[in-house]
Amino acid sequence: MKTVAFICFSLLAMSFLSGCAGVILGGAAATGVAVAEERSVGTIVDDATIATQIRGKIFDKSEPLFTDTATTVNDGIVLITGQVPTPDDRIELARIAWSVQGVKQVHNRTTVKGQGENPNFASDALITTKLKYQLLADSKIMNINYSVETVGKVVYLMGVAQNQAELDRVEAHAKEISGVRSIVSYVQLKSALYKNKTS
């Protein structure tokens, strides 16, 4: 059963990666997305590959860990969210993430089940959906450069902000959503990102 499930996961991952290839070879719409994204097409593919490898290794370790956690990768920076059974599982997730080539940083924001507030997945999904919609509707925000995860009513942001003013707008939108307890930002400023890449 586990093998069948992993095959399904692998097919989904390959289909995602082939979708990225479509961005490279595709028409005007795909090109527009690639131009709008602050990450290069190569970086987008690298991030997808890193995420797929991490998820595959987590699945090999434990199917429940795979099911109860999520992994987001942006410019080699990994964010892991969700709930795990024991503190040792948190350590193992970090170890797995760091074992994948190309990983620059790992932010392990998983919590141990029974410690603290249990997340309400429907409520978290609603917060994420509302925030993504607000970012999309705000013409002063390049929403394509942001990833949003919500766990236990805590909003986690990743991506690249054009400037501090844009990031402030993103965080302000998150604060306006009912039920949000706090915001954790791993967003990089565009100026700092390019400075690091050229230095």
TrEMBL record:
Family annotation (Pfam families): BON (PF04972)
Keyword S-adenosyl-L-methionine: no
Lineage: superkingdom: Bacteria
Leader sequence segment: 1-21
Keywords per UniProt: Signal
Domain BON: 46-114, 123-191
Protein name: BON domain-containing protein
Organism, as annotated: Sneathiella marina
